[in-house]
Amino acid sequence: MGWLATAETIACTVEIEHSNESLHAHVALDGNPAIGPGDRVRVHGETICVAFGEKITVRRDATLTRAGALLRAWTRFAGHFGMSELYEVSFTGRGL
Known about the structure:
Radius of gyration: 19 Å
Number of strands: 4
Order of helices and strands: EEEEH
Shape: flat
């Protein structure tokens, strides 16, 4: 892992569903590369529009930009503070 970001182009499969059961978009990169803190994935191509009740699977190219050492460290550090937004803690008095 170097200090500077590196980028590579990878083929991927994009699956999008818009139905009563699910509303999702999943991207699976070929070769299942490990994605680390600070890494970015950008899928290329035209906008995909899915009508209600449809499920579409398309092949696209994507650019995987791997974070450099400094960005990776910063993302790990900042992530610890972001986790506090995901949970709520409250205290209630007993015997009131």
